[in-house]
Task: structure prediction
Amino acid sequence: MKTFIAILLTLVAAAANAAIHTETIEYKQGDTALEGVLVYDDAVTTPRPGVLVVHQWLGLTDYEKHRAEMLAQLGYVAFCADIYGKGVRPANTKEAGVEATKYKTDRALLRARVKAGLDVLEKNKLVDTRRVAAIGYCFGGTTVIELARSGAGVAGVVSFHGGLDSPTPADGKNIKCKILACHGADDPHVPARDLAAFETEMHDAKVDWRLIKYGGAVHAFTQPMAGNDNSKGAAYNERADKRSWQDMKQFFAEIFK
Amino acid sequence: MKTFIAILLTLVAAAANAAIHTETIEYKQGDTALEGVLVYDDAVTTPRPGVLVVHQWLGLTDYEKHRAEMLAQLGYVAFCADIYGKGVRPANTKEAGVEATKYKTDRALLRARVKAGLDVLEKNKLVDTRRVAAIGYCFGGTTVIELARSGAGVAGVVSFHGGLDSPTPADGKNIKCKILACHGADDPHVPARDLAAFETEMHDAKVDWRLIKYGGAVHAFTQPMAGNDNSKGAAYNERADKRSWQDMKQFFAEIFK
Result:
């Protein structure tokens, strides 16, 4: 009987996995080769909302692919963008810092890179281009807000523990989409002055925005690999992770109406 | 056909209204007579979550009763507490200011008054006492957080544009319940120093809390009678009203599991 149940569970798991289609897609921004990952539930054949997923400073990893799978299970077409370039996958935080800084100090390049990913998503026939959003983690959170600042015609963006600073706050006026910023109340990587500047930017530009502060959460609160020691400034927080995912779903329910 | 549809709609509306039971309840705190309003859907007979509703500075009005009806329609037993006393219903903002100040400067009395209302709710046989929350608007927001600071055994409290200040921040350590503070990002009635002090209080006491800032919203953003002129510092904001109600529902879904 136990063997039978084990086989049955394996079959059920296989069936569940089989529905999720995962595909590596090479694309370009200028002359730079990029390599993203498209994920969707292949049981659905009609156009549906698309969600761009932008990686943290370590580049595109299994973490983003897992989030894309979670989005696919919600019925969305998800595409994990590659900002750094094909094969550029930092091996440690030192290398990650070098890569992330390249783009944080060249916002025009960052915008071009994320836009290239958005184009791939929007060209997919399964995507309803009137219902597209972008989400991002840490560096990716900064990136999706930068995408909004570029005037992109997405319905909304969600930043999870992203840096909220901008070298050109006046660009807030370009924002056409809705913004949800999910922020760890104890995040030492987002200084109070950045938070205040972000709020001023959103206010001055009359953006449709909201910000959620999760008590007890520091940087990287959605990432299990960040460990659980808040004193390090970055740590996983299951409570804030689950709540922010719910908050994202509620945001999507509103913008994808 | 049109007449038939009109009659049908009237009947449907009547049936929907008939299910909502509204009852004035007199009770006491010390020697002071108080008069609250109990609201629930009388179609339900088994215990369900209870929600205490605490009024704004104008005292218990039709506004709170309407919110209680909305909660009843969600399947909760709602009780509108009376903090000021039977018949004490300020006729204007000047009188409201006098009443509210009495309690804001005597937190022990405020706690006793809200506790008396909570007792009425919890004694009702339709209420599942393991699943009780309190929500409040403006003055009532301050009140429900004060209820939490008193160590009340509720599952959670929700403040809508409430004052977040505390004369005794150390009381944060008494808080046993979860806290959701819904805050207008442009609310001039909640100074930045109060917001910062609130966050410090929650942090220091390791409270399970979250705060949502709604862009473009000022004080009283859930109250249609506040008008729509943000420059007055208090104004209705339909977007923030609807979102904060959704956020409250999501909070309840979590704490009433």
Q: What stands out?
A: Residues 57 and 100 of chain B are 6 Å apart (CA to CA). The two ends of chain B are 45 Å apart (CA to CA). Chain B has a mean pLDDT of 94.
